[in-house]
Amino acid sequence: MSRRVRRKVARKGKDKVVLPSYPELEDEGSSLDQKVVVDWTRLPDDTVIQLFTCLNYRDRASLSSTCRTWRVLGISPCLWQSLDLRPHKCDATTTASLASRCVNLQKLRFRGAESADAIISLKARGLREISGDYCRKISDATLSVIAARHEALESLQLGPDFCERISSDAIKAIAICCPKLRKLRLSGIRDVDGEAINALAKHCWNLTDIGFIDCLNVDEIALGNVLSVQFLSVAGTTNMKWVLVSQHWGKLPNLTGLDVSRTDVVPTVLRLLSSSRSLKVLCALNCPALEEDSSFSNNKGKSLLALFTDIFKGLASLFVDISKQERNIFSDWRNLKKKDKNLDEIMNWLEWILSHSLLRIAESNPQGLDNFWLSQGAALLLSLMQSSQEDVQERAATGLATFVVIDDENASIDGGRAEAVMKDGGICLLLNLARSWREGLQSEAAKAIANLSVNTNVAKAVAEEGGINILANLARSMNRLVAEEAAGGLWNLSVGEEHKGAIAEAGGVKALVDLIFKWSTGGDGVLERAAGALANLAADDKCSMEVAVVGGVHALVMLARNCKFEGVQEQAARALANLAAHGDSNSNNAAVGRETGALEALVQLTRSPHEGVRQEAAGALWNLSFDDRNREAIAAAGGVEALVALAHSCSNASPGLQERAAGALWGLSVSEANSIAIGREGGVAPLIALSRSECEDVHETAAGALWNLAFNPGNAFRIVEEGGVPALVHLCSLSASKMARFMAALALAYMFDGRMDEFALIGTSSESTSKSVSLDGARRMALKRIEAFVLTFSDPQTFAAAAASSAPASLSQVTESARIPEAGHLRCSGAEIGRFVTMLRNPSSILKACAAFALLQFTIPGGRHAVHHVTLMQNAGAPRVLRAAAAAANAPLEAKIFAKIVLRNLEHHQTELNSKE
After folding, report:
1. 445 neighbors 397 (Cβ within 8 angstroms)
2. Which residue has the higher pLDDT, 673 or 44?
3. Residues contacting residue 373 through CB under 8 Å, at least 6 positions apart
4. DSSP of 212-247, one letter per residue?
5. Cα–Cα nearest to 203, from 230, 184, 231, 217
6. In the predicted model, is pLDDT for residue 408 greater than 80?
7. Could you tell me if 449 and 486 are in contact, meaning their C-beta atoms sit under 8 angstroms apart?
8. In this predicted structure, what is the pLDDT of residue 294?
9. Is 80 exceeded by the pLDDT of residue 883?
10. Which of 134-148, 192-206, 856-870 is predicted most confidently?
């Protein structure tokens, strides 16, 4: 086999260096069978530099630190012609450390006043382009110094947020110090006076692109003196004197493009401006005066871009030889083989001003634009996302993220707009942007994907196109903004049950947990999104175990304990609630309770001023109280006092908070010691108040809590004292929930089975206020309601047939008509089962029937705790008592039939147990 060896030569400094090379085999198929170890340090210099260009700045720095050769290559001038400081905290120290690499820097993007102050330390005197956002706090002094140190500056852009502290003085300094200026775009300046604009006209002879956007006052006459201007935007600028505009701007000899979007310009002015010989395109998006004048139309051959025109057709009219579909005008222009410099300048400017205005319009979300967004707005944003200008791409992605949102608070989006984005291939475009190494694009694309994914069809498309893996990777970013938006995307996607497993498989659970540890301070947005996504994932049994395995319990408890931001607290508490909601299927409930400070933190959060936090904390304590050890630990951490106080305070709160407050007390009251403590703490009155809620979910939890409390005679008497009997009777009569009616009947049965009578003779505890109570009247009211409740499950014909034959088919028919499915989730203690067995001997025929009905519910085959209840009944000698009740001559028919069914249930379970043994 012959071998050919190539000697690869690379330049390092002034010396020629011969780099080692690997032999190339003519028979390439044979080479696949050989294991070749690639020595990355021996790659050619140009290959390494090419790899560097595909990385973000942080990764370039990390890679440069691996060896001396790559350190030298890492400071190659071609890698440092452009610098984006927006994702980083940038101060004078940071920029000073970068200074040695930035000697040849030409393009710089920054964010905020601190970064602006630090730019000077870069010593990049050859800078040609500077672009900054979040510029509200940038002062005249800072901007003037930047201009003085960068006399080669050709482009300066500050916005799109308002530059409130910049005045005309800074603009004059820019004009004097930067004579090579070609492009000046400033947003939100209060006043741009004639002196400043005339200075630009005098010193900046190459100034062709001016944007005074969203300003309050601009000198219209002075702008007519800037004879070099070709592209002018005053979009969103108020207080314009349009008479002066029409008089002076129409005479500008080179004016090619004019943008008056979002202003109060009138048709007359545009008609006068259309007489300009040089003017080719007028952009007037969202100008109410134009849109109200139905007679207004474009004339004199100028391209008018407005909400009421076909914008794609207007753009296509700028071209002579493009014959393809107008909707493809941007891509056709980008793919032209023969370039026209003048046309390229127009299209590049149009991309910029369209992306800016569409984003501003989306942010303000004016009424009546649904048709525009569906017919062309969404398509325009998608076309702009494919621009070669990075800032245009970012704004277009942000526009997509913004225009679909209807309600920020409730995460509500417009389904039609979301579908329009998906229909035009927007999902693939956004995912491709998210794969970019540029972190600004990653962040804005992830934001758009997150917002659009609120729509279930879009979420499905994102998952099918590999979006879950992309977002999981972005969630690992060292850039907080990127990680935050990616976490938001996973949060919205995790709402769908079908996506939870895919997120876990993509490593999303660990990425989200790691985010909490990585940004535990100073990252409220990313923490809220990460905790929210984990909360959704924790609702799935398998994913909840994954959350626990990767340290999620500790991370979430850390947030609940230490974070002061309400959104984070709410989502952390919700996540802990969902982790603890899986009962016996995993050990997370106990694990949360064992985590240091978890229960104390949740108890403390029930006192939060924010209702959402209180609701989720109460929900978490409710779920955690199903574990015996947690139940006692919650009480020891002050949970009884906190939850009683919460129940007192939430009479006018949302049904969700009411349900969880009552539910948490229900869970705690399973323990008799806690039940007594709740009664002594004053928990009876608020639970009675909650039982009168209009929401059936609240009925269930309040009735359940009162049922548990009524087991104790002292609490039973308190319920009577506080007017609980009429409330429970009303609940048992009218609630839409069978479960609420059932538990209200059981609470009444506990109260009047005779045990409370002895307590009433002694009186209530010293802490209780004595009240005049008529037990006889309350007893009659309660028994009458219990009887009516039981009879609602009694069909005379079916019961007569069952009484006559006791055949399995007849009893099964009664069982099905009497069954309350949710009752199978109730788990009774031995004492409670014993009390119902004892109640079968009660002189009251109504209580006998009620006890038999309850035991039927607790022993129906298939019930979650049926076997547990059967064992307790066997221990309590229930079969003998049931047989006596079924055969008693003076017992009501309902009691007899229900007793027979319970005996049959016991036999069924005993047979199953024997077969297993």
Report:
1. yes
2. 673
3. 403, 414, 417, 420
4. EES-SEE-HHHHTT-TT-SEEE-TT--S--HHHHHH
5. 184
6. no
7. no
8. 58
9. yes
10. 192-206
